[in-house]
Specification:
Layout: H1 2-30, H2 40-57, E1 61-69, H3 71-78, H4 80-97, E2 103-108, E3 111-117, H5 121-142, E4 150-157, H6 158-161, H7 166-184
Antiparallel strand pairs: 1-3, 1-4, 2-3
Helix pairs in contact: 3-4, 4-5
């Protein structure tokens, strides 16, 4: 009887430890190691579902693409540790300005995306502008005499732009981001 009880306890502990390890592994696979935002895989698995849901329910879905201006120059001039600090700082701003249902993702390098269910183009633009303003303010404090530190963004939305799929929604936001970059030069 005691052996059976020990066996059950051991089995429960193994199941529990396996469950914890599997959850942690799943989390690591979907997160960016530096910023702890979602990664490209997370975006691919979640974005299509949100797009379909918004399309079916007639609600809006906004996409904000963000990119650090002159990041390579800043990284080369200030060092990779400072560059990582800028990325982590921007990720923190994105996280702080996003809502619980929003998807905040680092695509790689200095590219980020924020998917905002239920937000229209205006609201998403306001959030992007706030992120940009807060980033610029803090970047000037952290790295005086580095005026090149800025964020460009592009915004698109399901209702305003009527894209056929999530990829088109993201590409449109990306095109608008690069329009902003060109207009600032």
């Amino acid at each position: 009887m005691e052996a059976l009880s020990l066996r059950r306890t051991l089995d429960q502990r193994v199941v529990s430890a396996t469950h914890r390890a599997t959850n942690e592994l799943s989390r690591l696979v979907m997160r960016d190691a530096l910023t702890d935002l979602g990664n490209r895989r997370f975006l691919e698995e979640s974005f299509a579902r949100l797009f379909e849901s918004a399309s079916a329910s007639g609600t809006d879905l906004a996409c904000v693409m963000l990119d650090l201006d002159h990041f390579k120059l800043a990284n080369d001039a200030l060092g990779h540790e400072a560059g990582d600090h800028l990325l982590v700082f921007l990720a923190g701003l994105i996280r702080a300005t996003s809502r619980h249902d929003d998807l905040a993702v680092r695509l790689g390098g200095d590219e980020f995306v924020l998917i905002m269910p239920g937000s229209d183009l205006t609201r998403a633009g306001q959030v992007a502008q706030l992120i940009r303003k807060l980033y610029a303010r803090q970047a000037c404090v952290m790295f005086p005499n580095r005026r090149m530190l800025d964020v460009s963004y592009g915004v698109s939305s399901l209702k305003a732009d009527n894209p056929p799929d999530p990829g088109a929604l993201r590409r449109l936001a990306d095109q608008r981001l690069y329009q902003m970059k060109r207009s600032q030069r």
